[in-house]
Design brief:
mainly alpha; about 150 residues; globular; about 0% strand
Length: about 150
């Protein structure tokens, strides 16, 4: 019985550690804290790198949405999933395309981001792709990049 209680405590502690590391990673990525991000990732975080926050956003999504290309690079180097998206919300590529961040879009595509991903929520962007978001926002260079990627499929 005591062994089961200890195992349960370890599981709870590991979940808390995962939550803490995930929070640190997301904070560092969204605020351009490259040193902190790299140090946390190099300390070994396992699956925390793609752990979403309460809004369903991963660290890579936060970096992409806030124009933190170097942070996106660091995350991708450490195995972040460029296609992580929850509940049909915008992917990292969609967020970077909408923002107009050509460098991050290019890096995400090189890492295997799905150029055909279609968002299902929130309702104002449902049915749209990264290409559509780039075109709507007037980011023609990004739209061209995404069109070339689609033609290559």
């Amino acid at each position: 019985m005591a062994a089961m209680a200890m195992a349960a405590c370890r599981t709870i502690l590991s979940r808390r550690e995962l939550d803490r590391r995930g929070s640190v990673i997301r904070y560092a990525a969204s605020n351009g804290r490259v040193g902190e991000l790299r140090a946390t990732l190099e300390a070994g975080v396992g699956r925390a790198i793609d752990q979403p926050d309460a809004a369903g956003m991963t660290a890579l999504m936060h970096a992409s949405a806030s124009g933190r290309t170097i942070c996106a690079d660091v995350l991708l180097e450490h195995g972040a999933d460029p296609n992580a998206a929850s509940d049909g919300r915008p992917s990292a590529l969609c967020l970077a395309a909408r923002r107009g961040d050509f460098g991050t879009c290019k890096r995400l595509l090189a890492a295997g981001a799905d150029v055909e991903y279609v968002m299902r929520s929130p309702s104002e962007v449902a049915g749209l792709t990264a290409l559509a978001l780039a075109e709507i926002a007037g980011h023609l260079a990004i739209a061209g990049l995404l069109e070339m990627e689609l033609r290559a499929l």
